[in-house]
Design goal:
This protein is α+β, with helices and mostly antiparallel strands and 368 residues long. The protein has one domain (4-63, 85-356): Alpha-Beta Complex (phage-related protein like fold). Helix content is 25%, strand content 27%. The protein has 9 helices and 18 strands. The strands form 4 sheets. Strands 4, 5, 8, 9, 10, 11 and 17 form a 7-stranded mixed sheet that branches. Strands 1, 2, 3, 12, 13 and 14 form a 6-stranded mixed sheet that branches. A 3-stranded antiparallel sheet has the order 7-6-18, with no helix packed on it. The longest helix is centred in the middle third of the chain and has 30 residues, at 113-142. The protein is globular and about 85 Å long.
């Protein structure tokens, strides 16, 4: 057991003002979704909340109306059209967390306790960031306005192939139609990555490509690792992705699919000591305020407040479960401009055939 009498006590440390900022930045640097570009920083979101309030208005231009062009006629004026605009809303989130840090300080004594402690807290917030993103996706895809939008479920009983095969992967990509090239990242569970790696895609003896579910797979999909690409879509692996009853949810994202902004907060980090409680406890408190906004979607604050009023409760900030509530999300952009796709498969073995493609040139018949 650690000797806490010789440990570095948090109350004795001089916590620098930049400690909270360092911790937040460290959590971002470790997060695969941030690193992949799925989440991009949008500082203007935070600046809108500088004067108070919980909502950020995000105006956007709608595509020009697809009307027929006007035929030149010198007896008529050219009719002028306008570009329509819309407004989506993003919600400020607030989260606090505290730790009893005496044992932690004892464990970390002898190193740089501030940096080591900050990294531990950053690991915690990294996992929270991932949960928030995935819970938000739950709510978004369950919303009435997203019904049958940007979703491909290979397990829905309408096909015999339930796997992450090339045909199904392409079906998911082309949910965006001609904008399929916008999708730059696919997030998968490690079981799905293992499924792809286990697929005997190339015959090591002949070098021929084996047909998988009737499709000749490109070399990019051979035993992929995180960071590799399938059809130019980079793989990110995260085991916090949803798994239920053998069904796995993967997501395809465009770069910048989510906007994020960390807000300044008073007393973002506090330490102290209560000498009476439990015969002496050191504590650490961390506070965060931030915005995470999915592109093309709007937070429905009126529905959120109505639900809280109906339950006779008050809450300044939504919970993680609230973020996953379909009632609180509304699609405000054209479906093809929603830059993410939900892709549902199983981790069953990708079926292969015994047929291989012939990579040799046919011989020319004699006399020809």
């Amino acid at each position: 057991m650690a000797d806490i009498t010789t440990a570095t006590k948090l109350a004795d440390m001089q916590i620098p003002e930049s400690w909270a900022a360092y911790t937040a930045q460290r959590s971002v640097e470790q997060d695969e979704f941030f690193k992949s570009g799925v989440i991009s920083a949008v500082p203007s979101l935070a600046s809108q909340l500088a004067g108070g309030g919980f909502l950020v208005n995000m105006p956007y231009f709608k595509p020009l109306a697809d009307t027929d062009p006007q035929i030149p006629d010198d007896s008529k004026d050219i009719e002028l059209h306008t570009i329509n605009t819309g407004v989506s809303q993003a919600r400020e989130y607030g989260m606090d967390q505290g730790w009893s840090a005496t044992d932690l300080a004892a464990e970390l004594a002898g190193a740089d306790p501030l940096r080591a402690m900050s990294n531990s807290v950053a690991d915690y917030w990294q996992h929270i960031n991932e949960r928030i993103l995935l819970k938000t996706l739950d709510g978004v895809f369950a919303a009435d306005s997203m019904k049958n939008i940007n979703q491909f479920d290979a397990t829905d009983g309408r096909r015999s192939d339930h796997t992450f095969s090339l045909a199904n992967f392409n079906a998911a990509r082309f949910q965006l139609g001609e904008r399929y090239r916008d999708l730059a990242v696919v997030a998968v569970h490690s079981d799905i990555l293992q499924q792809l790696q286990n697929a005997n895609i190339v015959d090591q003896k002949t070098g021929n490509t084996i047909l998988v579910n009737g499709n000749t797979l490109p070399t990019q999909i051979q035993a992929p690792n995180p960071g590799d690409t399938i059809k130019g879509v980079r793989i990110v692996v995260d085991d916090s992705l949803p798994v239920k009853d053998g069904v796995y949810t993967s997501y395809l994202f465009a770069t910048g699919a989510f906007g994020w902004s960390e807000l300044p907060v008073n007393h973002a980090v506090e330490t102290g000591r209560d000498g009476l409680r439990f015969h002496g406890v050191d504590y650490l408190v961390n506070r965060r305020r931030f915005v995470l906004a999915p592109a093309g979607m709007s937070w429905n604050e009126s529905a959120y407040q109505a639900a809280k009023a109906s339950a006779n409760t008050t809450a300044a900030f939504p919970t993680i479960d609230d973020m996953g509530n379909a009632k609180y999300w509304t699609r405000v952009a054209d479906a093809k401009l929603i830059p993410f796709v939900k892709f549902t498969t199983t981790a069953d073995t990708i079926k292969t055939t015994n047929s291989t493609t012939n990579t040799t040139q046919p011989t020319t018949p004699a006399g020809k």
